[in-house]
Amino acid sequence: MPNPWDIGSARLLEAAGFETLATTSAGFAWSLGTLDGQVSRDELVSHVAELSGATSLPLNVDSERCYPDDPGGIAETVALLAEAGAAGFSIEDYDPATGRIDELELAAERVTQAAEAAHSLSEPLVLTGRAENHLRGVDDLDDTIARLLAYRDAGADALYAPFLRDLDQIRTVVEAVGAPVNVLALPTGPSVAQLESIGVRRVSTGSALAGAAYASLVGAARELLEDGTSNYAAPGLPDEIRRAAFDS
After folding, report:
1. pLDDT digits (tens, 9 = 90+) for 151-168
2. What is the mean pLDDT of residues 25-46?
3. Which one, of 38, 132, 41, lies nearest residue 80 by Cα?
4. What is the CA radius of gyration of the chain?
5. Which residue, 23, 16, 143, is CA-closest to 88?
6. How far apart are the C-alpha atoms of 83 and 42, rounded to whole Å?
7. What number of other Cβ atoms are within 10 A of residue 153's Cβ?
8. Are 1 and 22 in contact (CB under 8 A)?
């Protein structure tokens, strides 16, 4: 489940053969010229509407904390995402305002609110409960598993602990939670085939594709500025996939 950050990248990924997509909060923020965590709910909802309207694929939404402090809170966020065309969304337990992981009771209560809103819709959304420990430098697998179990029991349909990269640890999580697990693809992590072999049900890319694209842009710009050459342009975008993605 790769993560596009704009209409063009979404259409390219669909043309490449993927069957589902997900937004990336960081990649989308970068496309707006800002940092992750600084995108408003209105901006996110508009982004979801654009992407869901641009491809025929189901779209999962990286909705961060589901904006609990905005008008209507989590339930309103879920309703807006559904109206915008989302097929699923996630809710995470890291609070950027405090720089800490939420207390488990509060985090589980918010998952309950999200699940009730998602599952009461005429076309229910798939809810992913996220435990942010490892992404935020908290290397506590036992706590991560406890959180994922709590989020499962609170109504999450899928579970996600981004930045787990050890295959044995991931296997432990999969076996412990007894629910579909999403894993973040990492340069130093297991391959998709390895993850499939231990029962992982979904793999996403987070901001990696956007980061790779922007890194290529910066590298090309430096070559042009410093060397005055344009070797960066040699590979190009294959005409076949460009036409498949953009010739509408």
Report:
1. 999 999 999 999 999 999
2. 98
3. 41
4. 19
5. 23
6. 13
7. 13
8. yes
* Distances from the Cα of 28 to the Cα of 24, 105, 128, angstroms: 6, 30, 19
Contact status, residue 22 vs residue 49, Cβ threshold 8 Å: no
Question: Could you tell me the two tokens for 77?
Answer: 């966020």
Spatial separation of the C-alpha atoms in residues 112 and 137, rounded to whole Å:
26
Burial class (CB in 10 A: 0-12, 13-18, 19+), 61: buried
Which of 131, 121, 119 shows the shortest CA–CA distance to 91? Answer: 131
DSSP state of 225: I
Q: Which two tokens stand for residue 189?
A: 């992590």
**Cα-flanking dihedrals φ and ψ of residue 110, to 5°?**
-70, -35
Contacts of 146 (CB under 8 A, 6+ apart): 104
- Dmax over Cα atoms in the chain, in whole Å? 58
State how far the alpha carbon of 137 is from the alpha carbons of 46, 114, 184, in Å.
32, 26, 15
Neighbours of 126 (CB within 10 A): 18
Is the predicted pLDDT of residue 103 greater than 80, yes or no? yes
**pLDDT surpassing 70 at residue 248:** no
Nearest Cα to Cα of residue 143 among 167, 166, 161: 161
Element (H or E) spanning 149, and its range?
Answer: helix 141-153
Tokens describing residue 48: 């979801």
Is this model's pTM higher than 0.85 or not?
yes
Q: Which two tokens stand for residue 225?
A: 């500025």
Q: How far are the Cα atoms of 18, 184, 237 from residue 187, in angstroms, in the given order?
A: 20, 10, 23
User: Please, are residues 89 and 60 in contact by the beta-carbon 8 Å criterion?
Assistant: yes
Residue with tokens 């985090």: 107
